[in-house]
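Example 4.3 (complexes with small molecules)
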Amino acid sequence: MKYFFLSYIFAAAIIVSAFGFRGSKSELPPLEIIPDMDHQAKVKYQASSEFFADGRGARMPVKGTLPMGFEIPAKPAADGAKPARVAFTSGLGYYDTGKEGDFYGDGLPKEITSDPAVFNEAFLKRGEQRFGIHCAICHGASGNGKGVTSKYGILTAFNFQQPGNTDPANAAAYRADGAIFDVITNGKGLMGGYGGNVTLRDRWAIVAYIRSLQLAAKESGVTLPLQ
Ligand code: HEC
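Answer. The structure with heme C bound is encoded below.
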């Protein structure tokens, strides 16, 4: 027993002298028993690389692609007029978030409605086109929630055509413009967000188009599940 204690104290002394007390600081690089992927083969920024034919380590962006959040200017700045932003969410106002303070707003934002060059028939057409590209596959071309995916029983997408869809007091069926905008931006439940793919202005164009679908159904009295 005596020898056990002696060797135990001896071993403890050796370990403490080699590794130091817990929490003690050292200028030396840490001992790496398991390296945790700290060291990997990589190209450092601005460094050259023999791997690529042009000798550059960093690669040029792939032709025809845009980095997420990149904005294509609406028109040349020559006339001095500031075009309405087409960009992706970058602020906290209604135009960027669909929210006014803690609540969803309703109605299109003034950034859209105040500019006749933006707010016109082409805006709604653009919404129709974008809805067709991004939403109809799940929500159906008429917005009734019966897109192609529903045929395979994969998803139950929201039905924009359910009774009460134009009545703000009907919480089950009505979604405020800002709420629809927010769902496009961030997704909700089973639906993913499209904020990185669809520009701000296009998101509002989609909202406007969904409203026109609902109004058309209401005016015509046709409530059949159109496809
Ligand atoms: C991949 C299928 C899919 C696509 C594409 C899709 N959605 Fe959805 N969406 C859903 C599903 C599923 C729900 C129900 C989400 C839940 O409640 O879990 C939903 C719900 C919604 C809701 C209601 C959310 C709420 O408040 O209850 C809105 C608004 C909406 N989607 C708008 C859109 C718009 C606009 C687009 C096009 C930009 C779009 N969605 C594209 C599947 C989709």
